[in-house]
Amino acid sequence: MLYRRRKYFHYDFAVAGRRFGGSPQQTSKSKARRVESKLIDKAEKSGPSAILRRARLLSVFGPRSVSWQINGRGLAAKTLRHYRLGWQRISETGLMGMSLDTITTQEVDGLRLSGSPIYVNQLLRTQRRLLGKAVEWKVNR
After folding, report:
1. Could you tell me if 62 and 39 lie in one domain?
2. Is residue 119 part of a domain?
3. pLDDT of the chain along its 141 residues, tens only?
4. How far apart (Å, rounded) are the C-alpha atoms in residues 141 and 75?
């Protein structure tokens, strides 16, 4: 999309869910359109594919994250046990069939979690750590 702002035209477009915007420093709309089309071609060739990938399921990503936590250096034995047991509790919930991008605080709050507050907090802490690792590793990109 081209639009004029004072003297120059500006472009604004999206490729594969990523937004691009700026000014080609052109006063002519036809010249600005040519620059914009070249930028769109360049973004499609160099960027991610135009088809967005589907987000991974928690049941697919979870074991990878937990194995990283267990094999990680510097974690105390109690911490490793904490994450392992937290993962076991998560695997018993309905979150396992959900994709990572659809898990929100509302989804987690809606779970009927049984057990003492310590076990519930263990599950929540492990879940937060899993989702944090997914963001850090850029799993959905």
Report:
1. no
2. yes
3. 888 988 999 988 888 767 888 999 999 999 999 999 998 888 888 765 544 456 688 888 888 888 887 777 778 888 888 888 999 999 998 888 888 888 888 888 888 888 899 989 999 999 998 888 888 888 765
4. 28
| CA gap 63, 90 in Å, rounded | 11
Mark 55-83 as b/e (b = at least 16 C-beta within 10 Å).
bbebeebbeebbeebeeeeeeeeeeeebb
Q: How many domains does the chain have?
A: 2
> Are residues 81 and 123 located together in one domain of the fold?
yes
CB 83 within 8 A of CB 121: no
Q: Are the CB atoms for 104 and 138 separated by under 8 Å?
A: no
Tell whether 70 and 7 lie within a shared domain. no
- Contacts (Cβ under 8 Å, ≥6 apart) of 3: 9, 10, 12
Q: Domain residues for 15?
A: 2-46
Residues 6+ positions from 41 with CB-CB distance below 8 Å: none
pTM for the whole thing?
Answer: 0.58
Do 74 and 42 have their domain in common?
Answer: no
